[in-house]
Amino acid sequence: MDATTTITQPIEEQPRLLPGDFAIWFFIFAELLAFGIAFLVYAVVRIQNVDMFNEFQLTLNREIGAANTLVLITSSYFVVRAIHAIRLNDVKNCVRWLYAALACGAGFLLLKSIEYQHLFSQGINLETNIFYMFYISLTMFHFLHVILAMIILFAVAIKAQRGGYSADNHIGIETGASYWHMVDLVWIILFPLVYVIR
Amino acid sequence: MKYETQGIAKLYFIAAIGLFVGQILFGVILGMQYVIGDFLFPEIPFNVARMVHSNLLIVWLLFGFMGAAHFLVPEESERELFSPLLAKATFWIFLAAGAATILGYLLVPYATLADMTMNHLWPTMGREFLEQPTITKIGIVVVVLAFIFNIGMTILSGRKTVISLVLITGLIGLAVFFLFAFYNPHNLVLDKMFWWYVVHLWVEGVWMLIMASLLAYVLIKVTGVDREIIEKWLYIIIALVLFSGILGTGHHFFWIGTPDYWQWIGSIFSAMEPIPFFVMVLFAFNVVNKRRREHPNKAATLWALGTAVMGFLGAGVWGFMHTLAPINFYTHGTQITAAHGHMAFYGAYVMVVLTIISYSMPIMRGQAAANAKAQVMEMWSFWLMTVSMVFITLFLTAAGILQVYLQRFSDTPLGYMVVQDKIEIFYWMRLIAGLIFLIGLIVYLVSFFVKGEEVKVVQSEAAEANA
User: Fold this and answer.
1) Under an 8 A CB cutoff, do A127 and B232 touch?
2) pLDDT per residue of chain A (198 residues) written in tens, 0 to 9
3) Which of A174, A175, A103, A115 is nearest to A142 (CA)?
4) CB A95 within 8 Å of CB A159
5) In CATH, what is the architecture of A60-198?
6) Which of A90, A109, B129, B240 is deepest in the core (most CB within 10 A)?
7) B264 — contact with chain A (CB < 8 Å)?
């Protein structure tokens, strides 16, 4: 980059390093660290029990898992649209997109519950074997995060509805959105890792 | 002092310091008994001294928290305490019950105490830290509920700040989790498991909320940094505490008969428990570096920074040292645990109570800060106690490592008592460090009585201090 371009680029246009409130990034990094460690541990234990993991992986419902992946990615798209709308000062559409994302979140919980119901009705629990221990604790921990992310997004949606955000001031929506994307991202790793990779 | 009823905190703090002295005296007796087994036997057997040492610690910290709440809440809520009479009554009832219980431990055999207090009607005695007779436990609940009612009413009818809300959440949590002390299942595994609901969820859960709010309050006062900034830090810290600490309870469930999955859950989440402590260090130093005023109370600032650092070392680093299940397989219940326990309790809780005492005592005695001489003396006591605690921890860690190796890891493991003989040298050194801690404590006590030129407060600072 030469000197001229540096001068012509106003400081305001420099994108911020991290969107949303900086405080949320402490949680996001802490969450990613927790999931990261858990995934690593899963991988190591799997290496030691490949056959057993492969055998029990087949009992999982991959179709529901894949559907849930689509649902969450779609929800993230809706959240992006919400941010886009508020940047244009379009509060009405912003709120709509946020509720659409929330509906996806609810859909995820519903599908996951069906999956759990099926497994639990067979008497499978944390103590059945180490594969199910990981499957249940990882997905359950993620499940709780979807609930938390929905609470955050719901609070943001209500505030948006009451006119609390505008094109100039929507850091709250960005904060909620960042957390939402994190939860989505974790699932995008979790799904292939636990359901698919053999 | 802005509100008259804040002065009630003084009663609580004096009692806290008095019990602290008792705790350390019994600590020294125990240190001696480690090397001279029949020291003070049969008058004060080891198990009784240990019970008194740990129970006094908990009781004086509770006095400290209660005192802190009485000092801080009126100022945060911008009103007098809801009921000063109730605050005084809870103090005297708590003190009398605490003293009677400790005397009970010392004067009659524990089994007799259990009979006298009719433990058979509702057996809750006999568990580490929860040795109190059932009647005392009920008394604690009544006192704490009355105290929370008083503090809660003050907060509800006044200004609500993040600090006072975090504090009251921590206090309510303290009361709620203590209720598990009344649940004593016959199954030993379940008994131990629920026992940790009190012990762990106190010190690595709700007490952390209390600690963080006290630290935040003192830092606002001594640095003049914007409340909004400090509140944001507070949010981050408490979220990280709960995130890592609740499931981190699992690290206590290793090798006690609970299902295997606790080894994974406990290891992963407790490995993250140092994070909130580290953030607390960042918080304290960051805020002090960005201070907007030079508060005359340098000692309080030193205690506040010390709390963050020692909490991180004692609870964070020393906790992490033996928190992973494969490591804990060897270290479970050895001197490594004792090392961690000493530095964590001192670093996180003793120091935070001394921080708020250091900040508030001069104010309750009508000064902005203690005089320069007294502050220098107080800082001496800070270094004496803190450095000797570091050494107590290091000696116990060395003893623990040797113990683990000789007794559990080596190809030719030795018996428990044989190993205890071999690591005796570290117990002697720990005893010396303990005596220096006692000297530090005496210096601390003396610092309250040192006379000197009163600290002059610049007008603008005085105005700000009242803000």
Assistant:
1) no
2) 444 444 444 445 456 778 988 889 988 998 999 999 999 999 999 999 999 999 999 999 999 999 999 999 999 999 999 999 999 999 999 999 999 999 999 999 999 999 999 999 999 998 899 999 999 999 999 999 999 999 999 999 999 999 999 999 999 999 999 999 999 999 999 999 999 998
3) A115
4) no
5) Up-down Bundle (1.20)
6) B240
7) yes
